[in-house]
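#lab-general

N.A. 3:47 PM
ok so I finally got the sequence cleaned up, no stray characters, all 305 residues accounted for. can someone with queue access submit it? mine expired

B.Y. 3:52 PM
send it over

N.A. 3:53 PM
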Amino acid sequence: MFCTVVSGQGKGSHFVEVSENELERVIGFKPFHGTLNLKGADTRGLESENIEELGEDGCEGVLVHLCRINGIMAATTIPIIEGYPEEITEVVAPVKLKELFNLKEGEMVAFSAREIVWKPNGSIVKHEELNLFDSIIFDLDQTLVHLDADWRSSYNELEVLMKEYIDGDITDYRHEEVFQIAQNRGIFEEVDQILTKYEIEGAKRAKPLKLIGFLNKLHVPISICTINSPKAAKIALEKVGIIDKVDCIIGRDSAITKPDPDPLYRCINHMGTSTGNSVFIGDARSDAEAAYRAQMSYLHPDQVQ
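B.Y. 4:20 PM
back already:
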């Protein structure tokens, strides 16, 4: 659903500042000291919790609903107090949403449940505002670069190798299904070798995409999380000249790949940041699913300018 940004009374900053520890325990991120006020937000059906220790002056607690705003982790904070205006919903997030999306009063934002992540139809983010997050994790192929790999030939080789274990075309399977079948049948190393061969050749011909031009404006830790070979990723990033901007590359070194959240956790652990206050940017549905499972904010590359 879409909601309208409205002005508030300026009390949200103090509330979040004095309540951030209690809020963080429930909402999954350290909140920015302020709230975004929305009109038209329907919180029915959202995961919720009443934090009874919060509130004063007759308030019986704060009802929190877990949500997303334009793909960003967020939560509503509704004081349980008589006379509180039901038409206004205050939202907290890990960053200042008005600054991130350059929101003005009367503009619309996409308000959704936490699990609705894929391709948010929300406002555009100016790339410099990504520095509001504690860290950024990027997908590689079709997000930062185009790997000019001969995928069809790689699939043909995989089909020959795995013909006893699959039904139909290998492209009917999601990549994590292929890797899991290979792991179960004891041929993951062979599958990895085939893909790595083609990915390295593609990486040597890698072409930069628009986000590459923005990385020099980013001043927070950056990692790469890809289902491709980490060797190929390194070659591609060296070719497009941004390898020195990257703290770590987590690629396909086992059958555990996106949308499993483990690769994102490994990036976060390397950078020393937190999932709730970081953002994952990737072009594929599996990227969005991984962000949800890791409880991270998510942006599609089309949202960043």
